[in-house]
Amino acid sequence: MDPLTNTETLVGAGTGVRVERILCPVDFSATSTKAYRYAESVAGHYRAALVVQHVVELEQFVSAMYAPSWELFEEFRKTQLANARQELQQLVSTSGSVLPEFVVQDEMPADAILSLARGREMSLIVMGTHGRRGFDHLMLGSVTERVLRHATCPVLVIPRTAPDPGGRDVPADSVPVQRILCCVDFSTHSQRALEHALSLASAYGGEVTLLHALDGISESADVGKETAAAMVKLQKLLPTGGNAPKTHLEVRLGRAYLEIHQFVSETRPDVIVAGVRGSHALDLAVFGSTIYRVIQLSSAPVLAVPN
After folding, report:
1. Are 150 and 227 part of one and the same domain?
2. Is 270:41 a contact under the CB 8 Å cutoff?
3. With 0-12 CB in 10 A as exposed, 13-18 as middle and 19+ as buried, what is 49?
4. What is the pLDDT at residue 284?
5. Domain closes at, from 126, 158, 190
6. How far apart are CA 230 and CA 100, in angstroms?
7. Domain range for residue 82?
């Protein structure tokens, strides 16, 4: 069977979410290797094509910039690209059912990732928060940060502290995606995030908790009444039918990102799903956004879904 024609698998819980092509940028750091295991698992569960990308940053090799001739520089460049391709092959050599496509480039990493994702119409990007550069820009790696700001498809961000699937020689089912937390504020973008959360739960046989934070309500408000109203609104978002994943509803009172962080600490979900407002929602002007802070604070992978 052609894996991309299995519509029942691709469309989870009747949400209309289609995961056909997954892009996983790697730089061979421990975090990006972990991200690859998640990408491999998601590709296997959705029967999706997987593209693994590595970008060689030639400017990091300062000595190469002073090569005595163009021919020597070009020879060095080709050697680096060949070495990267060989390392990609080693990364996936013990993998099972998923056979990825390799893409090796020598460009600026974020630009190369975004260009490939748009040009190939990727359904999902899976990447780590920090690479070989380490703690290089605020709380996220600068490359990941820029991809989050500008990607037009969902981005699954794997933090350094995410559970280790167990190394290279493990089956795709070992990646934990059973308990899924979906952050809901009743906006259009959070509704789209819920579709992805339900799709993940359907693909993995997991369950979804819908969490809403009563953020900014007045001191004179009837908290009990507000909570009950929010529970009713959450209930109305749920799908009907016997094939729908198991769901739980939760309403908390307080700042959204703090309540999400507290709930994550208490329940330890496998994946957090949240929506972002448009492809530039993580721009510098809104660095305090809920989704950005959740990614900063969370030890669980976060799926950021643009509207």
Report:
1. no
2. no
3. buried
4. 37
5. 158
6. 43
7. 3-158
Q: How many whole angstroms separate alpha carbon 233 and alpha carbon 290?
A: 20
CATH number at residue 93: 3.40.50.620
- Residue found under tokens 């020689």: 169
- 136-173 confidence digits (pLDDT tens): 434 456 788 889 888 999 999 998 888 776 554 455 55
- Sorted by sequence, the CB contacts under 8 Å of residue 118 that are 6+ apart come out as 152
Give one DSSP letter per residue of 167-228, joined into a string: SSS--GGGS--SEEEEE--SSHHHHHHHHHHHHHHHHHT-EEEEEEEE-S--TTS-HHHHHH
Q: Which of 186, 191, 184, 164 is nearest to 175 (CA)?
A: 164
3-state secondary structure of 157: strand
Residue 169 lies in a domain: no
DSSP state of 143: H
Is residue 287 within 8 A of residue 276, CB to CB? The reply is: no
Q: Is residue 193 assigned to a domain?
A: yes
Q: Are residues 143 and 211 located together in one domain of the fold? A: no
Helix 290-297 with 256-267: angle, nearest 10 deg: 30
Q: What is the pLDDT of residues 261-278, one digit of tens each?
A: 999 999 999 999 998 864
The total domain count for the chain is: 2
**For the chain, what percentages of helix, strand and coil (3-state, to nearest 5) are there?**
45, 20, 35
Are residues 135 and 195 located together in one domain of the fold?
A: no
Instruction: Say whether both 136 and 212 belong to one domain.
Output: no
Beta strands, E only, the chain: 21-25, 49-55, 101-105, 124-128, 155-158, 179-183, 207-214, 246-253, 271-276, 302-306
Main-chain phi, psi angles of 162, to 5 degrees? -65, 155
- State pTM to two decimals: 0.84
